[in-house]
Amino acid sequence: MAIQIALLPGLLCDGAVWSEQVSALSALGKCFIPDYAVLDSIGAMADHVLAAVGSERVLVAGHSMGGRVAFEVCRRAPERIAGLALLDTGYQVRPAADAGECERAQRLALLELAPKKGMRAMGEQWSPGMVHSDRLDSDVCHAILDMMERSTPEKFAAQINALLNRPDATALLDEIRCPTMLVCGREDRWSPLARHEEMQARIPASRLRAIEHSGHMSTMERPADVSAALLEWAKWSMEQETVDG
């Protein structure tokens, strides 16, 4: 049984972030990777995904900001989701008070830098926290910078707005009933493993796979390990579809 698989990229990411996973999953179904263009809210991105995949049931995987979009897709159309995969992501709203203002200031500082110095220069300042410390001058890191350079300050501004005003998915965790795979780089400093453990404890039908020797960009840092986890998830979800169908 073939099924459509939506792979949702994160902030300033494009199809390159899912390249290895598309190769692994394409034998099971048709892979779709959205371009958010200048959509400036998580809800608008979720609507775009739902419109693009049509009325059939779909497997939805989201990395980083894409995980937040995946949550919103699930909130809006749970009956259409055959399986959910959440990679190196979060579920809570931007915190209040000083922590929230600190996040806002950091994001806006990068946003201000992008049109002045260019997207690659902005990425060079931003990227050290993205990957495992062993990969700071690696081909993976350079590929991430190339990906950022392909984007624009306008897209960056829209996506920063979406993240600063992200919806809270806390209550949704208890309501998710489809097979759900949580994947996280063990050394992810932005979306730590502990947060994924919290999600796994609350989502009824969920599994957690920690990706060793990986930071936030697990799909590119350890592509084979991530692909193995997503193949496990896709087959599990499709088996459940057969049982339920």
UniProtKB/TrEMBL annotation:
<dbReference type="GO" id="GO:0016787">
    <property type="term" value="F:hydrolase activity"/>
</dbReference>
<dbReference type="InterPro" id="IPR029058">
    <property type="entry name" value="AB_hydrolase_fold"/>
</dbReference>
<protein>
    <submittedName>
        <fullName>Alpha/beta hydrolase</fullName>
    </submittedName>
</protein>
<feature type="domain" description="AB hydrolase-1">
    <location>
        <begin position="7"/>
        <end position="228"/>
    </location>
</feature>
<dbReference type="InterPro" id="IPR050228">
    <property type="entry name" value="Carboxylesterase_BioH"/>
</dbReference>
<keyword id="KW-0378">Hydrolase</keyword>
<dbReference type="Pfam" id="PF12697">
    <property type="entry name" value="Abhydrolase_6"/>
</dbReference>
<dbReference type="InterPro" id="IPR000073">
    <property type="entry name" value="AB_hydrolase_1"/>
</dbReference>
